[in-house]
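Re-run requested by the PI after the first attempt was lost when the workstation crashed. Everything re-entered from the original request form. Ligand of interest: nicotinamide-adenine-dinucleotide.
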Amino acid sequence: MSGPLVGVNICVIGGGFVGLVTAAGFAQFGHKVVCLENDSARLAELQAGRVPFFERDLEELIRNNMHCNRLSFSKDLEEAVDGQEAIFITVGTPPSSSGRADLGALHEVIEVLSRSVQTGQIIVLKSTVPIGTASRVKEILASNGYGDRTVPVVNNPEFLREGTAVYDFFHPQRIVIGGDSPDAIEYVKHIYRLGMTHPVPIVVTNNATAEMIKYASNVFLATKIGFVNELAGLCDQVGVNVLEVAHAMGLDPRIGPDFLNPGPGWGGSCLPKDISEFIGQGQSHGVQLHIARAVVEANHRQFESVVDKVRKLVGELDGKQIGVLGLSFKAGTSDMRGSPTIPIISMLLEAGATIKAFDPAASREAAQLLPMIEITPQASDVAPDSDCIVILTEWPEFQLLDWWSMAERMRHRNLVDCRNLLSPEVAHHYGFKYLSTGQV
Ligand SMILES: NC(=O)c1ccc[n+]([C@@H]2O[C@H](COP(=O)([O-])OP(=O)(O)OC[C@H]3O[C@@H](n4cnc5c(N)ncnc54)[C@H](O)[C@@H]3O)[C@@H](O)[C@H]2O)c1
C-alpha cells in the first residue's frame, strides 16, 4: 500500500456537516468521491446540488465538484464501497439519554462494512468516537476475517468549526491520524497532502490517543469559554471591562486570544455531547473529572444569568414580551443542536414571557424546535411592543440594525446584550437600559 500520487477513490459515509465538507474538500483536492447519505429527503437535496443547511461556500464547492464528476451522492452503501481505496465514516454520534455517545449509526455502518469491505481498503473513523471504539471496530472486522493488516482502521478526528467549516478544511491547524498500520497512516497523509497548498502539522499516533485528542480538545475549549463567562460575571460586579481583560490575557501565548469571548453559555452539536461523554468515560473508569463537571454546571448557571439580567431590567417576566435576536448556537450557521438559545428561551417562557425571535439562517430549524415562539421574517420585527430585546447570537448584522427605530417601537427600551455587539455608550445613546456581558 503506497501513497497516491494522483487522486484516489474515496467513499465518505454520512452527508452531514462533517461528511459534506470532507467529501467536497477531498473532491476539490482531485480525488473521486462518493458520499453516502441514508436519509432519502436529504439525499434528494444533495443530488440536486442543494445543501440542506446553511454553511458558507459549501453549496458552491459541492456543485463545482459535481459538475466536474469528482463528487457524487448515493444511498447504497454496499455498492458504493466497491472499488474505493479509503472509506471515511462521518455519521453522527449524538448523546443518548444517559449522556453517553450513541454509536448506533456507527455500528450500523460497521455491520454492513464487515460484509462488504475488501482487502486493502482503509476504514477511517472521522466521527468523534469514545476511546476504545477503533479497537472494537477492529475486533468486529477480525471476527469477519479482516485483520488490521488486511483492512486497517485509522482515526482521523475532525476539528472544523461550523460557520467556517470550508475554510477550516483547507486551512487546518493540524491533522491527527491514529492507527497501527504505518502504510495506512501514510496513505491517509497522502490523501490530504495531494491538495494542501501549505504545510500543515500532521500528528501521527495510535487509535486511542487520536480519539482522546478530540475529546480533550473540546473539553478544554468548553472550559476556556466557561472561564471567561464566569470572569465576565465578576467584571459586571466590580466595574471592570472583561473585553480589556480578555484582550490582555490573550496576548500571553500560554493563553492565546481564541475562545475568550464571553457569551450566554457554550453549546452546539459537539461541546455539550463531547463533555458529557468525557465525564461518562471518567465515571466508567473510576476517575472523577471534577473540572469537566464544574464546567457543565457553570454553563447552566450562565444560561440562568441571562434570564436574571432580563428580570433585572423588566421585573416579573409574567406577561412581558421579549424580542430575541439570534437562535443558532453561533453566527454563520443554521445549526441549533445544543444551542444555548433553547434553554434560555424555555426559561423565559416558563416564567410567563412571550417571545418574538429572529435569526438570519435558522428560522426553519427554530420553527421545529421552538414551536411555541413567534419567528419573525425581519430582525426589526422583534421590536414592536417588546419590553426587552435580548441578543443571543453574535450575527454581525445585528450591529448594523437601525437601533433608533428599534428603540422607538419598543414598549420599554431594555437591551440585554449577551454577545457584547453594542457598547454601553452606543446603547445609552439610543436610550436603552443596557446590560452587557462584562462590559462597563
Ligand atoms: N458538526 C461539527 O461541527 C463537527 C465538528 C467536528 C467533529 N464532528 C463530529 O463528526 C461527526 C458527524 O457530525 P455531523 O455534525 O456531521 O453530524 P450530522 O448529524 O450533521 O451528519 C451525520 C449524517 O450521517 C447520516 N447517516 C447516518 N447513518 C448513516 C448511514 N448508515 N449511511 C449513510 N449516512 C448516514 C445522517 O443522515 C446525517 O446526514 C460526529 O461524531 C461529530 O461529533 C462534528
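Saved to the shared folder this time. Residues 158 and 405 are 44 Å apart (CA to CA).
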